[in-house]
Amino acid sequence: MGYIAGIGAANVDIRGRSERRLIMGDSNPGTLYTTLGGVCRNICENLARLGSNVKLVTVVGDDENGRSILRGCEAAGIDVSHTRVLEGERSSSYMSILDEKGDKVLAMSDVHIVKRLDEDFVEAARVVLSNADIVVCDGNLSKETIARLTEVCLAPLYLDPVSSTWAKEIAPYIGYFDTVKPNRMELAALTGVNTDTIAGVMHACDVLIKKGVRRVFVSLGKEGMIYRGRREGTVHRIARPFPDIVDVTSAGEAAMAGIVWGSRQGMTADEIVCTAMAAGMIAISSPDTISADMSAEKIEEIIRDYIA
User: Fold this and answer.
1) Residue pair 9/114 in contact by the 8 Å Cβ criterion
2) Are strands 104-110 and 134-138 parallel, antiparallel or unpaired?
3) Residue 74, C-beta contacts closer than 8 angstroms, at least 6 positions apart
4) Distance between terminal CA atoms of the chain?
5) Which of 300, 263, 265, 264 is nearest to 279 (CA)?
6) What separation in angstroms does the CA of 119 have from each of 90, 163, 190?
7) Do 275 and 258 form a contact (C-beta atoms < 8 A)?
8) Are 22 and 103 within 8 A, CB to CB?
9) Cα–Cα distance between 151 and 119 in angstroms, integer?
10) What is the pLDDT of residues 54-113, one digit of tens each?
């Protein structure tokens, strides 16, 4: 049985959602909760919930957060035998503040440990990475690590850029990726193209394709998702209004999992776009980082009710 390898960050997430309109610089009543996170880890758990065989290649500290990450991944069905525990290091963490609507207002990440995912680490993980059907990574990796990853991996490389800041760092290596899923700001950072309009998004996608990327899936929030491919052309889907928004934080990771899973299922570009959007909608309907409802059946239901 083939497998997907994920390499990137695994975090403990701390989230706060305000009960009313946020007042900056003041204490706001709300709800605080802690979950497991990390872009790559989140993608892997969504894929595991969709029935995929997933191996997570990452690092955690020898602290309680690190132990929580390992226990949580194992419980979710993620193979962590290639994850390394580093003595004396602090595990990666992420904190976000959401407004009363569930939209992210501010976030801060402590991902210093991810620097240990360096070229030597990639070389040590060569066997598991080179034998995967697909390798998915996040933009937290350094450009040197990504450069080494492109040399080691034989499988198609999929990238979630994470943020516009990280996207700028990895832009010189973007042509090595088979599939990229940026949002509007990340796409602009990767290409230097103004993406304020749909025409600008299309142009930016073409820039990536000319650099060697085969497929680009652009998350546009309420404007849906645009696909631009070397062969299949363009797909633009917009969902009907979705009333069950609780927390939008992890929608991107769920959408990326939908892209990876749909690709392995042999779906068409249009089917993958619908799958990715549905996975993202499942994610935002849950207060948890990874929705317990994530499944192929739930994806089909969301597509039928909100996208098709």
Assistant:
1) yes
2) unpaired
3) 80
4) 32
5) 300
6) 20, 22, 22
7) yes
8) no
9) 10
10) 999 999 999 999 999 999 999 999 999 999 999 999 999 988 898 988 788 988 888 889
Place of tokens 């996608």: 205
CA angle, 147 as apex, 146 and 151 as ends, to 5°? 110
Going 115 to 136 to 5 to 46, the CA torsion angle's sign is positive
Helices vs. strands in the chain: H and E counts, helices first: 11, 14
- At 57 the pLDDT is 97
Cα-based torsion angle of the residue sequence 243, 164, 255, 6 in order, rounded to the nearest 10 degrees? -150
* Mean pLDDT (10-residue bins), the chain, 308 residues: 93 90 92 90 97 97 95 96 94 90 85 91 94 94 89 93 89 95 96 96 97 97 93 90 77 96 96 96 87 95 89
Q: How many of the other CB atoms lie within 10 Å of CB of 65? A: 18
| AA identity, residue 279 | A
Token couple for 161: 């850029």
What letter represents residue 252's amino acid? G
Tally the C-alpha atoms within 13 A of residue 290's C-alpha that lie toward its C-beta. Answer: 29
Give me Rg for the CA atoms of the chain.
18
* Separation CA 24–CA 158 (nearest Å): 37
Amino acid identity at 296: A
Quote the tokens at residue 217.
Answer: 């899936």
What pTM was computed for the model?
0.91
Which amino acid is located at 172 in the chain?
P
Alpha helix positions (H), the chain: 39-49, 64-75, 119-124, 126-130, 143-152, 164-170, 184-191, 198-211, 251-264, 269-284, 296-302
